[in-house]
Amino acid sequence: MTFASDPDIDKAYRPSGALAPGTFEANMVLYRERSAEAYRSLSHERDLCYDAASGQCLDLFPAPGPGLKPVFVFIHGGYWRMLSKSESTFMAGALTRRGISVVAVDYTLAPAVNLAEIVRQVRTSIAWLHRNGRGYHIDPERIYVGGSSAGGHLTGAVIAGGWREAMGLPENAIKGAIPVSGIFDLAPLAKSFVNEWMKFDDAQVQSLSPIHHLPPAPCKMVVSWGADETSGFHDQSHAWLAAWRGAGYPAVELMAPGRHHFDIVLDWCDDDSAMTRALATMILG
Known about the structure:
This protein is an alpha/beta fold. It has helices spanning 7-12, 23-41, 92-96, 115-132, 150-159, 195-198, 202-208, 231-246, 274-284; strands at 45-51, 56-61, 69-75, 101-105, 138-148, 174-180, 220-226, 252-256. The chain has a single domain, classed as Rossmann fold (3-Layer(aba) Sandwich). Strands 1-2-4-3-5-6-7-8 form an eight-stranded mixed β-sheet, sandwiched between helices. It is globular and about 55 Å long.
């Protein structure tokens, strides 16, 4: 039987459809170009394998100077089926200049694997950093996580409760998170065009939606999205904030004026943008 999506939900969750033709493609070029500049100009280590089972790797940009450094782990978006760590290091310059190391994580893309496996991989990257970080001048007690769109979902999955003990991590292994334009409840996407390749069923929606699996104690939280997002991403961020605060957990809310789904994260290339200041404040205080 052919899958039929809901046209209204499709519109709410198709961010490129709300923008001028070519905007999505132009922003993907900027992701690649600015990340390539980071690789050219900054010290880094590439393709550190964090998961032997899948062979997935991460790239590390160490902050200069002596001692152990806090780390920001960025998880890319792309509706779980596109992009990679190689287009996801554009923030490395602004953050390493502030003394924050940067890690960009790869994961196997759908539909080659399902979302449960993607979540397992990304969680494994955090466990790897916690165990091995000191060897790369990373402070395992100062791991912060963020991601955009599907990467915002995976950020939520990383801070969710119920998995750290099995991977040998303390419950407070992640000290803070900044999901950007994130997806926290998969139920609408199960009725959208995204389900053509994700194949969500009711059990997966329940088990893999971060909004249903808040951690037993909070980490620092900044929730960000662009003012010019489509409605679905506004709704998702508001719902996450309501759930997080409803549990008694504090959060900083940052809606970026004049920014849409794809250019908001590029504000991390600017040392003095509100996005950069919010992230640095979360990490450095």
